Amino acid sequence: MEAERIDGRTANQLRPLACSHNILNRAHGSASWSQGDTKVLAAVYGPKAGTKKNENPEKACIEIIWKPKTGQIGKLEKEYEMILKRTLQSICVLTINPNTTTSVIVQVVNDDGAVSFMVKNLSHNSVVSGGFGLLYKDNQGSNPSTPNFKKDGGFILPPPCAALVDAGIPLKHLAVAICCCLTESEYVMLDPTKLEEQKMKAFAYLVFPNSILSVLPEGALKVKGEPMEHGIITSVTQGAMSVDNYLNCLERGRAASTKMSAFLRRSLQPQIPGDSSKAE
Amino acid sequence: MGLPDAPGDLSSEVEVDAFRRLFPLRFYERHLTESIRPDARPLGRARDTTIALGAVASADGSALAKIGSTTMLAAIKMEVMTPSLELLDEGCIAIDFHMPPICSPIVRPGRPAEAVPVVSKQLSDTISRHGHYMLTYGSSGMINLKELSLVSGKAAWMAYLDIYCLDADGALFDAALLSAVAAFSHSPDLLENCPCLAVQIPAVSLNDDGKIVVVSEENGRKLDEDSVNKEKRKLTLKSIPFSLTCILHKNYILADPTAEEESIMETLVTVVLDSASQLVSLYKPGGPVLAYTSAVQDCVALTRQRVKELQKILDEANSGIEVD
């Protein structure tokens, strides 16, 4: 029952990933992420003083601006902005800089399927690297509950995460996004291209937290018997599928997210100087 | 009140209200440890739901749905249009969700609320088929758009569904979906296996210029002979979607949150199941709490229960109309 994919990938294979940081020199943090032909660019500015009208001034606020490749901004973009904002708010440590606004601007450069997810990885990345006063922890010892946990999450909700990493915004952990789709023969495939997207019966877009490399013993990180990285941060589905198929997608998604986390960790690695603190 | 150690005199009552405003999270957590919420509901129970069909007399189908205080008014108007070149034998459903300032103190005129595009998009994903990928596999949406076609290539129905939020007190998507489904299902004969929805599709006929015109009811007998769609006066709803929004907070799952609960505990999960038990949507837009498989399964189980309740309420509302 192996479905043949046009570009010869297997069902569980992701497209080749490429990520780069610090590409825009005015932005406080920036990253570019490409997965196959889909390419997204994210930039992070902030924190700036003051929050918007209806936001809680005791916490930092994140503002997302999503720019599609063509066309005007409509409901779809607003919805993406809202989802991204909530996802990033759950990742960032909001109590460190209260009453500030961080802007994340996302530009879709090329859309070949699975854009919304890439976007998350990217902005994450740019927030983490680059910017002001970075303190990198040692490779092994990142306790996820420490506020200044910046590197070594390796989670990268594609572009925005990468951009957040690049800007040096404190994060709890990073996040990885995966798109699973269901063909009509109940077969789950990961990371569809635009052509494949059109033939699918249903999709699930899932965002998982990054797997943690930690000095703490394994047991301390489990919640209800499941390791932390199995929890879903965000899930958006389209099309009808049975509950079992959805749970199946979750399983595949988790497996793929560990691979993505490893990639992100590797791509952030060369950015870190050998020692812990940077003398800038 | 839910606090067991609060004596009944006025001074402590004032204190409780102040406590609720100043420390809302602690107030709620104090209740959650006793497995109850401030409005005396157990954690898994939804608020009282009512549906009133035919609320807007001039519309082709309408319904007013209330879940607790959240009130939504849905109305459908049908109009003939020429179908698009790519989808020649399909009609169209245009869904519009409005949150006028009457619904909530946070919504001001001129600036649409943040929830509007989100609920709007979720509704259109659930109700109508969209995108090329749905074409081949049949609709996962409620309505088969091919039924809205009149003369292939020349005329098809366009259904304008407008949903107005009259009172926003949490769980907006649930109430909006319920009112939309009820408006479509405004039907005199509701069969069990095949719910027929008779939005009253007006009778139309082809006039001499080759245009479709609505035949008014006054022409009486002539109607049935000339009308193009005399056989197709009812829409069939395949499987009706119902939804439930839950809040995840630490280890608790609260079903059907009010606006106050939503603003304090920010992690929402909306599960939409249809009557064939297919998962139409599982929507969790971020939020500080992670959803593990056990939480997902619990939410789905709560939603299944809710689907049965809502199905019953909808059937009662429909049979109520029938009797009249």
UniProtKB/TrEMBL annotation, chain A:
Spans through the membrane: none
Domain Exoribonuclease phosphorolytic as annotated: residue spans: 13-118
Asked if the keyword Endoplasmic reticulum belongs to this entry, the reply reads: no
Where is it found, in Gene Ontology cellular component terms?
Answer: cytoplasmic exosome (RNase complex); nuclear exosome (RNase complex); nucleolus
Tell me one GO molecular function of this protein. Answer: RNA binding
Q: Which InterPro entries match?
A: ExoRNase_PH_dom1 (IPR001247), ExoRNase_PH_dom2_sf (IPR036345), PNPase/RNase_PH_dom_sf (IPR027408), Ribosomal_Su5_D2-typ_SF (IPR020568), RNase_PH (IPR050080)
The record ties this protein, via PANTHER family, to: EXOSOME COMPLEX COMPONENT (PTHR11953), EXOSOME COMPLEX COMPONENT RRP46 (PTHR11953:SF1)
Protein name (record)? Exoribonuclease phosphorolytic domain-containing protein
Supply the source organism for this entry. Answer: Fagus sylvatica (Beechnut)
TrEMBL record, chain B:
* Recorded superkingdom: Eukaryota
* Listed GO CC annotations: cytoplasmic exosome (RNase complex); nuclear exosome (RNase complex); nucleolus
Entries under Pfam families matching the protein: RNase_PH, RNase_PH_C
The record ties this protein, via InterPro entries, to: ExoRNase_PH_dom1, ExoRNase_PH_dom2, ExoRNase_PH_dom2_sf, Exosome_comp_Rrp42_subfam, PNPase/RNase_PH_dom_sf, Ribosomal_Su5_D2-typ_SF, Rrp43
Keywords in UniProt for this one? Cytoplasm, Exosome, Nucleus, RNA-binding, rRNA processing
GO MF, one example: mRNA 3'-UTR AU-rich region binding
**GO BP:** exonucleolytic trimming to generate mature 3'-end of 5.8S rRNA from tricistronic rRNA transcript (SSU-rRNA, 5.8S rRNA, LSU-rRNA); nuclear mRNA surveillance; nuclear polyadenylation-dependent rRNA catabolic process; rRNA catabolic process; TRAMP-dependent tRNA surveillance pathway; U1 snRNA 3'-end processing; U4 snRNA 3'-end processing; U5 snRNA 3'-end processing
The cellular location(s) given in this protein's UniProt record come to: Cytoplasm; Nucleus, Nucleolus
Outline the extent of the Exoribonuclease phosphorolytic domain. 46-187, 240-289
Identify the PANTHER family for this entry. Answer: EXOSOME COMPLEX COMPONENT RRP43, EXOSOME COMPLEX EXONUCLEASE RIBOSOMAL RNA PROCESSING PROTEIN
- Annotated family: Belongs to the RNase PH family.
Q: What is this protein called?
A: Ribosomal RNA-processing protein 43
Organism (species)? Fagus sylvatica
Question: Highest lineage ranks of the organism?
Answer: Eukaryota, Viridiplantae, Streptophyta, Embryophyta, Tracheophyta
